[in-house]
Amino acid sequence: MSSTVAAVPALGPALPEIVLALGALALVLIGAIRGDRSTGLVNAITVALIAAAGVMVAMQGGGKVSTFNGAFVVDGFARFMKLAMLIGAAVALVMAGDYMRKEKVHQFEFPILVLLSTLGMMLMISANDLIAVYLGLELSSLSLYVIAAIRRDDVRSTEAGLKYFVLGALSSGMLLYGASLIYGFTGSVSFAGIAKALQGEAGTGAIFGLVFILAGLAFKISAVPFHMWTPDVYEGAPTPVTAFFAAAPKVAAIALLVRVVMTAFPGITGQWQQIVVFIAIASMGLGAFAAIGQRNIKRLLAYSSIGHVGFALVGLAAGTAGGVQGVATYMAIYLVMTLGSFAVLLSMERDGEYVETIDDLAGLGRTDPVMAFVFAMLLFSLAGIPPLAGFFAKWYVFAAAVEAKLYALAVIGVLTSVVGTYYYLRLVKIMYFDEPKAAFEPAGGVVRAVVLASGAFVFLFWLWPAPLVNAAGAAAKSLF
């Protein structure tokens, strides 16, 4: 009896995850009994569960607590990144409603898979050993593979899901191989045990393990050279699914990467720093140049997201609390900009069909001035033009790199940011200077609200940046 009583408080740190897991099981039963008639109800309950999990995470208070023998940890960094990820998941799911109904893919399985993926991402963010990392990654990834191909009668969607699955399986294998090497050469799977074993000089085997782990995680954040799935999956998957991919999983994977390198490998910073610098430069370069020739907006945003991952990794390469603060701030701002951009894409409906090419934006400045203005602001923010929020996001990561004396990395980051500005400005030029096409059908209230809210955030951020920046700073300090 006493052992049972003692075990109850240990579940407290994982309460949000437990609620999501039990909720997913209940929703599976509801869907199985009522079929597709329950889709609206399941969707609403899923959003409510994600919101409830967010409230519970916010109420967990300060300090650092762990459970499951140290495999699961909740600290300031976990709380900050979980809240950002949950906001992204909830907004993407809410925006999906109208699109899924009109495209006749409104199935009760979709919100349940999003919920299970969200649960996996929460486990990833709180993972404190290599086994927990793999469990969280696979729970999230298996759900993502399915929702990428949720439109079963569409060739592009099926192809996207299959490509994502095959390449995802390869990356999981690399991650597992790296984890097994680390365990073999350190004798531990816990981050604290690995850090203790790798103080000072690390052996060749441990370095190889680190490389394979970083390769597996680089796939999850779609960083070069493990980015090859991103443009095809972004274009082939239904637009709300792409919005979800670009928002929540990206935040969770970056959070996992930060926790792994900062808490498991702090004694060999020089080794992983070289890898992160290379990946950051390659991602920023590809994101800047490969997007220039794209005609499909979703493919363009895919290359844009690869570039933004590179910018976020500039902060991580610094290996300092200021760098982690920059990464956390960058991902929060990137989340808002991405959700706003995909909300604009979801409002591009003409003659009962959703369009997604750049040329379809022609003359939007005259047919829908408000939408065009907000989208232009979001594009300027993605380009990093002051005084919009995207400028400050890049400022914090570049400042951290300069403080860590990574001058070449900061200069390359600024140059690639300038090159990337070209394709964002081209979209603005098409909206305001090209001959207008037929107006889009009026967007749904939810989608338009997301567009306006994200636009207001990026425009007004400079007036009051302290709450977000200070919260990111406190989150970063909790890792050290």
Question: What do these coordinates show?
Answer:
With 480 residues, this protein is mainly α. 75% of the residues lie in helices and 2% in strands. The protein has helices at 2-10, 15-34, 39-58, 76-102, 109-126, 130-148, 155-186, 191-197, 204-220, 230-236, 239-264, 269-289, 297-318, 321-346, 364-367, 369-383, 389-403, 407-433, 445-460, 466-477; strands at residues 65-67, 72-74, 349-350, 353-354. It has a two-stranded antiparallel ribbon. β3 (349-350) and β4 (353-354) form a beta hairpin. α11 (239-264) packs parallel to α13 and α16 (369-383) crosses α19. The protein is globular and about 65 Å long. The two termini are 38 Å apart. Mean pLDDT is 87; it is low at 1-9.
Layout: helices, strands, pairs:
Blueprint: H1 2-10, H2 15-34, H3 39-58, E1 65-67, E2 72-74, H4 76-102, H5 109-126, H6 130-148, H7 155-186, H8 191-197, H9 204-220, H10 230-236, H11 239-264, H12 269-289, H13 297-318, H14 321-346, E3 349-350, E4 353-354, H15 364-367, H16 369-383, H17 389-403, H18 407-433, H19 445-460, H20 466-477
Antiparallel strand pairs: 1-2, 3-4
Helix pairs in contact: 2-3, 2-5, 3-4, 3-5, 4-5, 4-11, 4-14, 4-20, 5-6, 5-11, 6-7, 6-11, 7-9, 7-10, 9-11, 9-12, 10-11, 10-13, 11-13, 11-14, 12-13, 12-18, 13-14, 13-17, 13-18, 14-16, 14-17, 14-19, 14-20, 16-18, 16-19, 17-18
